TrEMBL record:
NCBIfam families: 1-(5-phosphoribosyl)-5-[(5-phosphoribosylamino)methylideneamino]imidazole-4-carboxamide isomerase. Belongs to the HisA/HisF family. It is found in: Cytoplasm. GO terms for molecular function: 1-(5-phosphoribosyl)-5-[(5-phosphoribosylamino)methylideneamino]imidazole-4-carboxamide isomerase activity. It comes from Paenisporosarcina cavernae. Its EC number is 5.3.1.16. This is 1-(5-phosphoribosyl)-5-[(5-phosphoribosylamino)methylideneamino] imidazole-4-carboxamide isomerase. One of its GO terms (cellular component) is cytoplasm. Its main location: cytoplasm.
C-alpha cells in the first residue's frame, strides 16, 4: 500500500505538492483564547501557552520549511462553532504553506468558509460521529478537501474537544467512512497526546490496514526516532505525522524533523 496511490487526487488549492513519495510532517498549532497552546491529554485545565499569536507561530513554521501546517481551534472544538478562524485564514492567505484545520466545524457553511479562503484541507471530527449522514454528504460534495479526524481514548472516539467519550470504536467509524469515500484520516491517541511518550504506532497502522486509506498519526512524538519509525510504515498507509509539544519543548528543531522525514 503506497501512500501516494491514495494522494494523487488532491485539493486544487494546494500551494505545494503533497504527493512526492515523501512522508509529510505537520507542525501543529492548537489555538485557545487567541493564543498558541498545548493541552496535556486534551485536558483544558492542563494548558501551556507557547505563543501569543497563532499566526506568528505559523509564519515561523512556514519560514523554516514547513509545507503543511496543522491548526486546531480548541475553543471551536469545545463550543461547536468557529472561534479562532481568523488566524487560520490569515495563515492560508499570507504564507506559502498548506493549512489544514480542525475544531468547531459543524456545518457546510463552516466548510465553505474555510475552503473559499484557501484552506487546503478541512477536518471533520465531532460532527462525523454525531451526524454521519451529513458528514458523508459533505465527503461526496467536497471529496479530498476533507479529512476525518478520529480522536480515540482507549479505542473509543472522543468528541467536543475530547470532553466527551462516545461508545463508538474508532476503527469501526474509520471503516464506515472509508466506504463512504474518505481518503485521509487523522488519528490521535489521546493517551499519548502531549505526553512525549511515543506515538501509538500499532493503533495507527491497524487503522490504515483496516481502511486501506491514508492515515496521519498524531500524539506522543518525543524524538526524531519516532518520526523515523512512523515513516517506515508508509507502505502500510501511514503518510504523515503531526508534531506539537516536541517542537515547542525543543526536543528537536523543525529543520531536524524535516530532514529526518525527507531523508
Amino acid at each position: 500500500m503506497l501512500a501516494c496511490s491514495y494522494s494523487q487526487t488532491l485539493p486544487t488549492s494546494l500551494k505545494k505538492e503533497e504527493c512526492n513519495l515523501s512522508f509529510q510532517l505537520y507542525p501543529a498549532i492548537d489555538m485557545r483564547n487567541g493564543k498558541c497552546v498545548r493541552l496535556l491529554q486534551g485536558d483544558y485545565a492542563k494548558e501551556t501557552i507557547y505563543g501569543d499569536s497563532p499566526f506568528d507561530m505559523a509564519m515561523q513554521f512556514a519560514n523554516n520549511g514547513a509545507t503543511w501546517i496543522h491548526m486546531v481551534d480548541l475553543d471551536g472544538a469545545r463550543d461547536g462553532k468557529r472561534v479562532n478562524d481568523g488566524f487560520v485564514i490569515q495563515a492560508a492567505n499570507d504564507l506559502q504553506a498548506n493549512i489544514q484545520i480542525g475544531g468547531g466545524i459543524r456545518t457546510e457553511q463552516d466548510i465553505v468558509h474555510y475552503l473559499d479562503q484557501g484552506i487546503a484541507r478541512v477536518i471533520l471530527g465531532s460532527v462525523a460521529i454525531e451526524n454521519p449522514v451529513f458528514a458523508k454528504e459533505m465527503l461526496r460534495k467536497y471529496g479530498n478537501q476533507l479529512a476525518i479526524g478520529l480522536d480515540a481514548k482507549d479505542g473509543f472516539v472522543a468528541t467536543h474537544g475530547w470532553v466527551t467519550t462516545s461508545s463508538v470504536k474508532a476503527i469501526d467509524v474509520a471503516k464506515e467512512f472509508a466506504e463512504a469515500g474518505t481518503e485521509t484520516f487523522i488519528f490521535t491517541d489521546i493517551a499519548t497526546d502531549g505526553m512525549l511518550s511515543g506515538p501509538n504506532e500499532q493503533a495507527v497502522v491497524e487503522l490504515a490496514h483496516a481502511t486501506g486509506k491514508n492515515v496521519i498519526a498524531s500524539g506522543g512524538v518525543s524524538g526524531l526516532h519516532d518520526l523515523h519509525s512512523l515513516q517506515k510504515r508508509q507502505e502500510d498507509g501511514v503518510v504523515g505525522v503531526i508534531v506539537g509539544k516536541a517542537l515547542y519543548e525543543e526536543k528537536f528543531t523543525l529543520a531536524q524533523a524535516l530532514s529526518e522525514v525527507q531523508s
